[in-house]
Amino acid sequence: MDAQGRGRADDIDPADQWVLNPNTGEYELRLTPSAPQSAVPGPRSRTTSRAAGPSGAPRGRTAAPGRTSPADVPGRDVPPPRRRRGAPEEPPPGRRNRRPVKKKARGKKILLWTGGVMAFVLVGTAGAAYLYLKHLEGNVTTEDVGNVADDGFSKDEAFNILIIGTDKRTGSGNGGYGDKGSVGHADTNILLHVSKDRTNATAMSIPRDLIVDVPDCEVTEDGTTKVIPGTQDKRFNTSLGQFGRNPGCTMKTVEELTGIDVNHFAMADFNAVKTLTSAVGGVEVCLAKDVNDPDSHLNLSAGKHTIEGEEALAFVRTRHSFGNQGDLDRIKVQQQFMSSLMRKMTSGDTLTSPTKLIKLANAATKALTVDTGIGKASTLKDVALELKKVPMKNITFTTVPVKDNPAEVVKATVVPLEPNASQVFNMIKSDTSFTAVKAKEKKEKAAVAARLKGSKSDASEVRVRILNGGAAAGSAQEELTYLQTEAGVTKSENAGNAGASQAKTTLEYAPDQADQARRLAAIMGLSGSMMKPGKSVTNSQGLPTITLTLGEDFKGAGVKMNSTAAPVNVDKTTANEVKCAS
Fold first, then answer.
1. Closest CA to 253 of 227, 235, 226
2. Which of 110, 265, 316, 365 could form a disulfide with 162 if both were Cys (CB 3.0 to 4.6 A apart)?
3. Is the CB of residue 488 less than 8 Å from the CB of residue 571?
């Protein structure tokens, strides 16, 4: 019988079977005794650490043939075994001292990102045992989205997980939420990027009312695969549920919108927020004003409150109580909620409570639907252990930069704001941190100053033609606009697409144009490897010019190629910041 089965049979809470070892500071699984204790006979009777078998040998071992156990010799003292330095003392009589269960991992925290309308939960387990992982595995629901998701999870690479919260009215007590009869649209969406070196992570919210093109996608139902035709200029939330679309369709929509490869998805409904917040005993939130929203049923006074269950769901659902009473301001409140939830999970109150940890692990795995590539509890544990390596101060929450849809008279939807949106997408795609390090910023400025010092040409003297050789569509024109209006490179022109795609951005110039090339390289932050001595070409006026080819690594108009800092005018916050919803 496994640990959980034994606990249920003896009417024991499974959480009580995890015991703190004072010598290691970790929890160990201690099973209850199944046999009475036996004492070793002799003048100095003491309690053995294991039940004795025949001839006084510990159960499971017998004395070797022809040899006598010390316990068989009448009157012979049985000295206690010498205790190694640092080893725990003998337990008091009546308590069995079992060997610690070998642990599959030493990590104490498991981080699961999920949300009905949104939840970001740090789940801690101490020394998770194999049997308990198998128990959790039975909680996880998987959905096969074909080759859209990766087959497995790599611990050595940067990874992107799309977290989807649906508005489907599934689960007990959810009949009054969301759209009645909804097929389950993508109501809340976060693209979580974790850097390759695990020093930073970015959680980018994608507004449900963002106008996008939803591509064709394959879905398999009852063993039959069919292609669902794409649609143009539709709300992002229709990428799930509409016409039978599955999470793979939402993943493909994100990839087409951003150019970022999405590795996996995790999806949950309204119950996720309720069960997860209750499992940890509530989450603290702060309000800058009184709120009484009849639509979401949130009724809280200004100040700090600890909320869970239905009240927590009401908090992340409300749209009419903060900011401009729209979805964009609701996203900001949800991000504040997730940051608070993370801080709660890393507090000692949670990490030192086996009961909370086990309840949370159960609630989190039951709340999730994931792709088959991460469908095992052990794989989810691996994902979590990689996530926990990221310092909380380096976890950035941001939202796709947007503006009102110019095609609408009554504003109800939004479209990407350029060039800001492309800058954000390219930063994530190139694994660039939004929490820039000051030392790197100083280094970049010093490099620019050195290049400018070596150049005698003014920006207005630089003649350059711009080709798109693998950057996002429209990048050549956007960079041209930036160079002419903000950088002073007025003798520049858009030469269209390059003959072939290339991975890196390059600047080609003739020997007598080296000074102009150095000036442009300083403006754009081009590295030495991007400089390509070659030959001159002529522009549309028949004048000699240098050639700038934007490659797949292009970060966006106005963003220096060696930049580590976040683009301007992008709202962002980090997980360690405490804010009050307003």
1. 235
2. 265
3. no
Q: Are 333 and 326 within 8 A, CB to CB?
A: no
This prediction's pTM: 0.64
Q: Where are the beta strands (DSSP E) in 311-412?
A: 369-371, 395-399, 402-404
Q: Quick check: helix, strand or coil at residue 564?
A: coil
Cβ(284)–Cβ(306) under 8 Å? yes
d(CA 381, CA 499): 46
CB neighbourhood size of 219 (10 A): 20
Tokens of 145: 């989205």
Query: What are the distances in angstroms from CA 454 to CA 96, 458, 517, 519, 523?
Result: 78, 12, 11, 9, 13
* Residue whose token pair is 């106005």: 558
Core vs surface per residue 260-279: b (16+ CB within 10 A) or e: bebbbbbbbbbbbbbbbbbb
Q: What is the pLDDT of residues 10-46, one digit of tens each?
A: 445 444 555 556 565 554 555 544 444 444 444 433 3
Angle between helices 247-258 and 420-429 (to 10 degrees): 110
CA–CA dist 297, 14 (Å, integer):
36
Residue 272 has which token pair? 């996720």
Length, in residues, of the chain: 582
Alpha-carbon distance 167 to 165, whole Å? 7
Q: What is the average per-residue pLDDT within 440-465?
A: 68
Place of tokens 């005018």: 569
